[in-house]
Amino acid sequence: MEFAGRLRGKIINSLTIYFKLEKFIATNLLWKRFRIVYPLLMNILHIDSCALGDHSTSRQMTSAATAALTAAHEQATVLYRDLAASPLSHASGPLLQVISQRWDADIPMNAELRAEALQSVSLLQEFDEADVVVLGAPMHNFSVPSTLKAWMDRLLELRAATAIALGPRRNDVHVVLVTAGCGMLGLEPAEELMHHHESQLRAAFRHLGIQHLDMVRQLADLQQVLEFKRAA
Amino acid sequence: MEFAGRLRGKIINSLTIYFKLEKFIATNLLWKRFRIVYPLLMNILHIDSCALGDHSTSRQMTSAATAALTAAHEQATVLYRDLAASPLSHASGPLLQVISQRWDADIPMNAELRAEALQSVSLLQEFDEADVVVLGAPMHNFSVPSTLKAWMDRLLELRAATAIALGPRRNDVHVVLVTAGCGMLGLEPAEELMHHHESQLRAAFRHLGIQHLDMVRQLADLQQVLEFKRAA
């Protein structure tokens, strides 16, 4: 019990520190000054989720987008995450309870759950720290890959739980969503299905607080979408 | 190499036997005679996927549907599968290659992959053997739960790979989809989002060969949907 208590104390501390830090960043006016040098230090978060490896055109397109961005911004740093190669677990009931802050504090939290909760927080953090997120979110078997869904579950629940506490956030994050190119069934996805797929994604990212979202289906559209960075 | 060769031989044999059996059942006219006693031996496949346990109204609704069906058919057998409690792994690239019959036979298959492939086949088999499938497919974070997606990936890819080889199939399977009731974000899902969610599911099950599909959002609708069984 003593040990469990300390463990619980630790995760609550870690989460509290994170929430306080976030609040500090969100409310302190000082950070806005740092924004002046921000364009030089552009953070790119590049995420792939199609399970088909290099065959996938979604991977080729996210790759092309990241290459174009780094070519235009020499100081850019890229963080790459491959959700298919290193999948997150399916978000379990207990994990959802912890990250949505509904965990009953009387129940000891095991080490695995604690690690998963902290990982979820750091996933949201790396998303929030990015200036541009290049995300491969293809329609595979009529919806997003399950690995991408597991990632979205964590971010959406965490954002929902902390949205009220944290107040206004940065609203200049650009998300570039590549929605085509993980076809396995050999069918061209019908326009209507793609429209539904993209609408659901748009709603999800709106929920994450994203105001600048571009959908890219074809390589030809990529150029136009990346124009916003040329101007910056 | 010798051992790997034998392993490979085994899985190919297992899959081949399955495909042959399926073909036999699908093409042999004799099986139609057995259909006479079928209504007495109704097979119900009951699947839940919401991670929120008994709080989830989708679980309460699938449960109510199964209870109503078994009450009307005393001889019914129920197979229950809880995708949240016993999640399937995310369908990996190699697994998708195996079940869509694109695996390169020169590459040895490891035991885990072989087990996953055989499990996928048996998942499709239990789906095909059901007369009624009662499936909790709620919209959770803007799409199906990732655990349900992992299940659908296996069935859709396997069906696509075997559709041409097997010819006509049973077309009297009823699927009852419960699409509401796994809300975590505390928002009532907008009508438009629910419409998109249901359209994608409808397309997926059409792809699985399902002609009788009912969507249920509210407990009140369940009664009407289950009428088809009263008539049978």
Kindly list the characteristics that best describe this protein.
homodimer; 232 residues; Rossmann fold; five-stranded parallel beta sheet; 9 helices
Concise synopsis of the structure shown:
Helices cover 53% and strands 12% of the residues of chain A. Chain A is of the alpha/beta class and 232 residues long. Chain A has a single domain (2-231), classed as Rossmann fold, CATH 3.40.50.
Can you offer a commentary on this structure?
2 copies of one chain form a homodimer. Chain A is an alpha/beta fold and 232 residues long. Chain A has one domain: Rossmann fold (3-Layer(aba) Sandwich). Chain A is built from 9 helices and 5 strands, in the order ααβαβααβαβαβαα. A 5-stranded parallel β-sheet of chain A has the order 2-1-3-4-5, with helices on both faces. Chain A is globular, with a radius of gyration of 19 Å. About 4% of the residues of chain A have low confidence. At the A-B interface, α6 and α7 of A face α6 and α7 of B.
Main sheet makeup of chain A: 5 strands, parallel
- For the largest beta sheet of chain A, what order do the strands appear in spatially? 2-1-3-4-5
**So what's the oligomer here?**
homodimer
* CATH hierarchy, class of chain A: Alpha Beta
- The shape of chain A, in one word, is globular
Name the helicity range of chain A. 40-55%
